[in-house]
Design brief:
Blueprint lengths: L5 H16 L2 H12 L3 H10 L6 H9 L7 H13 L6 H8 L14 H17 L9 E12 L5 E12 L4 E9 L10 E6 L2 E8 L4 E12 L4 E9 L8 E6 L5 E8 L7 E7 L6 E7 L7 E6 L5 E8 L2
Parallel strand pairs: 1-9
Antiparallel strand pairs: 1-2, 2-7, 3-6, 4-7, 5-6, 8-13, 9-12, 10-11, 10-13
């Protein structure tokens, strides 16, 4: 009888630990790794069970960026238990044990359910724009965002500067997503092409505060080509703003976030934070000093990691 390799033993031990203690996405990731199945094969096995789930959704589930909630998704989880040779109800139990509504797990600005609703809406808006791939055919080498907070303490707008590299031929656009504060009005927002691009179709969804727009390049990229472009979003449609969060579905290049405050509305303190997923507790809190002349704070990540990263601030 062949002996298990040390790596296989480690994978099995990691899986056993994850199934006992969770959370769900860690257990799912460990189970897929222990069976040595690529996500395309997992998707194929699910289709043979009569369940349709995209590779992107599977990736998000095992990263913790999203969680299965709909009846079809829960059917997929039960099928995954069989496909991955797991005890019955093991993954379903981990889903049920997650207390989304406890204060220590709930994000400060939006509930976990609000994030789920927004992710479902975003999928539909992207599909409407013919953008099924989450990365749009480019890798982000660098992303610098500047957030403006106005005199009414509102999210007045933001400017984004991207450096991207195409990983396939024919890329000629980027889909930009703006997620306004609670109570915002996406229909009243405006998108401006600032450099090396122009705006295309725009889609909005009022209840979730989402604005999605095509940023069209002036050229069609070939695989390996790089492109720099800059665009801005004028917002100012919601009430008092208290944070700005950027989510990353996959690892990327350098990310810099700067928040500038109007001189008439300065916060008493600012901090950075990280969050593995919308359902996870926040960590990595670090106070950020407000610069005197320009009334701004910033953070820089040399290499963005999967999850969420943001800056929060407190008013008097």
């Amino acid at each position: 009888m062949p002996h298990a390799t040390p790596s296989a033993d480690f994978a099995t031990a990691e899986l056993d630990s994850a199934l006992r203690g969770g959370p769900f996405h860690v257990a799912l990731r460990a189970a897929i790794a222990a069976r040595g199945l690529p996500l395309q094969r997992v998707q194929h096995h699910l289709s043979r069970h009569g369940v349709k789930v995209g590779v992107t959704s599977l990736s998000y589930w095992q990263q913790g960026a999203r969680r299965p909630q709909r009846p079809e998704s829960l059917r997929a989880v039960r099928a995954l238990e069989e496909i991955l040779q797991l005890p019955e109800e093991s993954l379903i139990r981990l889903l049920a044990e997650a207390d989304e509504d406890s204060p220590e797990r709930r994000p400060a600005a939006r509930s976990y359910r609000a994030h789920l609703a927004a992710s479902d809406v975003l999928d539909r808006l992207l599909a409407d724009l013919g953008q099924p791939a989450p990365d749009g055919g480019v890798h982000i080498l660098g992303h610098h965002e500047v957030i403006r907070v106005g005199a009414r303490r509102e999210l007045a707008g933001r400017e984004s500067h991207h450096i991207v590299r195409a990983h396939r031929d024919g890329v000629d656009r980027f889909v930009a997503v703006h997620y306004g504060d609670p109570g915002c009005s996406p229909a009243r927002m405006a998108v401006h092409a600032l450099e090396n691009c122009r705006t295309g179709r725009v889609r909005v969804h009022h209840d979730t505060g989402l604005l999605v727009t095509e940023v069209l390049f002036d050229t069609r990229l070939r695989a390996g080509d790089t492109h720099l472009f800059r665009y801005g979003v004028e917002d100012g449609t919601a009430g008092v703003s208290r944070e700005y969060v950027r989510g990353f579905g996959s690892a990327g290049g350098q990310y810099a976030l700067q928040v500038r405050f109007d001189a008439a509305a300065l916060p008493v303190r600012c901090h950075r934070f990280t969050q593995h997923s919308p359902a996870a507790p926040r960590g990595g809190r670090q106070e950020l000093p407000l610069s005197g002349p320009h009334h701004s704070v910033h953070l820089v990540e040399p290499r963005a990691r999967t999850g969420m990263l943001g800056i929060g601030w407190d008013w008097e």
